[in-house]
UniProtKB/TrEMBL annotation, chain A:
Belongs to the [NiFe]/[NiFeSe] hydrogenase large subunit family. It comes from Halapricum hydrolyticum. One of its GO terms (molecular function) is ferredoxin hydrogenase activity. This is Ni/Fe hydrogenase subunit alpha. Gene3D superfamilies: Cytochrome-c3 Hydrogenase, chain B (1.10.645.10). PROSITE patterns: NI_HGENASE_L_2.
TrEMBL record, chain B:
This is NADH:ubiquinone oxidoreductase. It comes from the Archaea. The keyword Flavoprotein does not apply. Keywords: Oxidoreductase. Residues 15-150 form the NADH:ubiquinone oxidoreductase-like 20kDa subunit domain. GO terms for molecular function: iron-sulfur cluster binding; oxidoreductase activity.
Length: 437, 255
């Protein structure tokens, strides 16, 4: 290994979006080590201004397809909070289920299609098909299951059609839900298959720890996704109302995406943050999966976010079965066809905070008395992780300089991918570059 | 075109929902790679090659860099397909085309607005390069995608339906949104989706774009019944047509 490192590799692939890793080493000294995100801005917060309260969720779903139900949900919660709209217990349960199903889909996509190839040393899921046919089939089945459950509730898995402020335009078919419940039950063997493979490959996950702050929602009654208050592993419970101060967004020189910080220089959101903060509320199967990897609360290895996603996959299946049982017990309360929930339009401001695949997501809107948006703010999880990726890189790079260049590059790419950044929400370029001086 | 054409996927400014719809073909994705060779698909693989025949392009053009990159892709590809509404006609991104650009950047980036490089308008790819086929939709329909790919392999000339969503809505026997006191863009929106959103209990949002000539092709019966004309709903109620609307107006004027 030479003293001077110069690697330039275009586009870190298999993440949703692009970014740029620049590492510059001269005479064994790290001179530059930057996680740059070059944004191809979409301006959603401006696009929302002037839109009607009936349109906000439709527009914001298009921020990101992989987590479109998540944006829809945060958006509807913000609108409902602004106008004081209550949701029936049934509708809230359906909202949760759609969110769980999308998170399942997203985690399976990340783990199976995007992260697993790294661990097997392949470029995509296709070549793995030859060596691990059963596991790939299990991944595809789980992915389809997440999508089918979303579709049954939302009408479509990408960009929901039935979600409305105050409820749903159409209810799911009970027989379809029942059939999905059966499929969820039989999904355990697929989770086992994927877990077996990941356990076998877990030595490939770099052994790197850096203490950081974990921020997520927390809820007294359940492992929080749909609702809750904010929780920091450093400072304890926080008010969702104070989210702007907590995320403290800044635009940094090296990147056009905003960076965030709270109690220290950076914090982490996402599956690992949730698992660390709310471990006790995971279901028994999820805990059993965590146990197979020795994953416990207080894990500070960002690469274990992949494992945390698998644990959550198990949890999401368990908890979806429970929610479905409650829904189907006694049948769904009917509603008229082409239902438009009653909403009393009023001026006001509302925040919607939701745990989505990549971490906590905030939407905040202010409405005027005609129900038109005058101000909008959306803080996406990926942006909250940028600063943490940067800090990880700074600590990690000096410790791996003795390795071959391509191995350093892969280790850094895997780090970025472990965070599962969905940069398409806001940003567009991910390259790894090792610059020569 | 070769027997098993080499295809590549590219994303510009969008939500990547159209590529996700391709991944959502699930098992059928593996059948697809039997008939085409995917050489670039950043969402699902690390490999990349500039040697391809069909380029599927998702997302709108919003920066000067986008324009350059797109021109390069056009040079490499025999066939360029606009995948989804953002690529086809600007889509949801073009909402901001109606807003003052300085206000737009300031709203989102405040004092740092000058660090942002972007064009004042979000545009479809046809504003930069020639496009051979279009798959509209937000997101695209998986079946329509499979049909277009099959057609391209067979060398069939791609076509787009030019009847309004209303035609399909009647076939589906939905209750018309106007009867329910809702505004629906079905009368002026390009069909092909089976009036999907109406079937799901709401109304058409116009995601597949306008019919070729709204003043001629619109489903006027429904509109007249409710005292509206095509012009009015195109001007007042659209979400997706921020680029298409002024563009169509210029074209109609020129005729
Ligand atoms: S057309 Fe719709 S689904 Fe496709 S990129 Fe644009 S917003 Fe996303
Ligand atoms: S009904 Fe309208 S908005 Fe819905 S899919 Fe069809 S064209 Fe798009």
């Amino acid at each position: 290994m030479s003293e001077t490192i110069d690697i330039e590799s275009e586009y870190v692939t298999r993440v949703e979006g692009h970014g740029n890793i620049v590492v510059n080493v001269a005479d064994g000294e790290v001179e530059t080590c930057e996680w740059q995100v070059v944004e191809s801005p979409r301006f959603f917060e401006s696009m929302l201004v002037g839109r009607d309260w009936t349109e906000a969720h439709h527009v914001t779903a298009r921020i990101c397809a992989i987590c479109s139900i998540s944006h829809t949900t945060a958006s509807l919660k913000a609108t409902e909070a602004a106008m004081g709209v209550d949701l029936s217990a049934q509708d809230e349960r359906l909202r949760k289920l759609a969110l769980y199903a999308e998170t399942l889909q997203s985690h399976v996509l990340h783990l199976g299609y995007l992260a697993l190839p790294d661990l097997v040393g392949k470029q995509s899921v296709l070549p793995i098909l030859d060596s691990h046919e059963a596991e790939v089939e299990a991944v595809v089945r789980l992915h389809r299951l997440g999508n089918d459950l979303t579709e049954a509730i939302a009408g479509r898995s990408v960009h929901a059609q039935r979600h409305l402020p105050g409820g749903f335009s159409k209810l799911p078919d009970e027989d379809e839900l029942d059939a999905l419940r059966t499929r969820l039950e039989s999904a355990w063997s697929d989770v086992e298959l994927v877990a077996d493979l990941l356990v076998e490959l877990s030595d490939e996950l770099p052994d790197f720890e850096r203490e950081t702050e974990f921020i997520s929602l927390t809820h007294p009654d359940e492992y929080a996704f749909y609702d809750g208050t904010l929780y920091s592993s450093d400072t304890g419970e926080l008010d969702v109302e104070d989210y702007r101060e907590i995320v403290d967004e800044v635009v940094v020189e090296q990147s056009t995406a905003k960076f965030t910080s709270h109690a220290r220089e950076s914090y982490m959101v996402g599956a690992l943050a949730r698992l660390n903060n709310n471990f006790e509320q995971l279901g028994p199967m999820a805990k059993a999966v965590a146990d197979r990897f020795g994953l416990e609360p207080g894990s500070h290895n960002p690469y274990l976010n992949n494992v945390a996603q698998l644990v959550e996959i198990a949890h999401l299946i368990e908890t979806s079965i429970v929610e479905l049982d409650t829904l189907l017990d006694g049948g769904l309360d009917p509603q008229p066809d082409y239902h438009t929930p009653d909403v009393e339009v009023e001026a006001g401001t509302g925040i919607g905070a939701v745990e989505v695949p990549r971490g906590v997501l905030f939407h905040e809107y202010t409405y005027d008395e005609d129900g038109e948006i005058t101000d909008a703010n959306c803080v996406i999880p990926t942006n909250q992780n940028h600063a943490n990726i940067q800090q990880d890189m700074e600590e990690l790079v000096p410790t791996i300089l003795d390795r071959p260049e391509d191995e350093i590059e892969l280790t850094l790419e895997m780090l970025v991918r472990a965070y599962d950044p969905c940069i398409s929400c806001s940003t567009h370029y991910l390259d790894v570059e090792f610059v020569d001086e | 075109m070769t027997e098993r054409p080499r295809v590549a996927f590219f994303d510009f400014t969008g939500c990547e929902g159209d590529q996700l719809q391709v991944v959502n073909l699930e098992e059928r994705l593996f059948d697809l790679v039997e008939v085409v060779e995917v050489v670039s698909f950043r969402e699902a693989m690390s490999e990349h090659s500039d040697d391809y025949e069909i380029a599927f392009i998702e997302g709108s053009v919003v920066t000067a860099h986008d324009e350059e990159r797109l021109a390069g892709i056009r040079e490499n590809a025999d066939v360029v397909v606009a995948l989804g509404s953002c690529a086809a006609f600007g889509g949801i991104n073009a909402i901001r085309n109606d807003q003052d650009f300085e206000t737009v950047t300031e709203r989102v980036y405040g004092d740092d607005a000058d660090m942002i490089e972007a064009n004042p308008e979000a545009r479809p790819i046809e504003s930069v390069v020639e496009v051979d086929a279009t798959i509209p939709g937000c997101p695209i329909d998986r079946e329509e995608f499979v049909q277009v790919v099959t057609g391209l392999i067979r060398g069939v000339e791609p076509t787009l339906p030019n009847h309004p969503v209303c035609v399909e809505c009647k076939l589906e026997e939905n209750e018309c949104a106007f009867h329910r006191d809702e505004i629906c863009l079905g009368p002026v929106t390009r069909g092909g989706c089976g009036a999907d959103c109406v079937g799901e209990g709401t109304h058409c949002w116009g995601c597949r774009g306008m019919v070729d000539t709204p003043s001629e092709d619109a489903y006027t019966a429904v509109l007249e019944e409710h005292g509206l004309d095509a012009e009015e709903i195109v001007e007042q109620y659209q979400l997706y047509w921020g680029w298409q609307r002024p563009e169509r107006a210029t074209q109609e004027e020129a005729q």
